[in-house]
Amino acid sequence: DTGVSQDPRHKITKRGQNVTFRCDPISEHNRLYWYRQTLGQGPEFLTYFQNEAQLEKSRLLSDRFSAERPKGSFSTLEIQRTEQGDSAMYLCASSSTLIAGVYNEQFFGPGTRLTVL
Amino acid sequence: EDQVTQSPEALRLQEGESSSLNCSYTVSGLRGLFWYRQDPGKGPEFLFTLYSAGEEKEKERLKATLTKKESFLHITAPKPEDSATYLCAVQAPSGGSYIPTFGRGTSLIVHP
After folding, report:
1. Which of A40, A56, A109 sits opposite B99 (nearest CB)?
2. Alpha-carbon distance A29 to A23, whole Å?
């Protein structure tokens, strides 16, 4: 078990550019979550997948954000036309679900820190 | 309106000085309350899951408890290595689905 990995760990971009982040969950986990965290705040839910299906997306999530999880394995989060307000830590987490309606703990990756200049 | 409120925002303790962190929630239909520890620049690390009122979990110097309105994380005789931000999260209904909602965390500093 190598844990959840994220790539890159740091990304600096200019306003208006597109960026893409990758998350590799723990292999046997069927659920994958994306969060955004700013300084002094808890992680803010963005979206989650069960296998390859995207089941929920935050109402606060701009149309500039899109996520995919092809084949139910790794996931990517893309931000188009980045803005300075997108600067944050982007966290990925995975969990296993053996019983419907039972929510287990999430295992987080180290995060990708995005800085938009 | 925050669904999950953690207090205090920051806490400074001397090594060995026991204390408690609070997580109060206003959601209904709770499907799990989770405690995580987060070190600076890292992702949260799972500590405990509590599913029903009255449940308690322990791990080393930490003990988590749950009532119908709040959860406490008790730290007994803390050490400097316990310094971190402690996050509480609830899994509750939101628009037909269950999404996790985190509090803002309690920043704990333990002085030697």
Report:
1. A56
2. 13
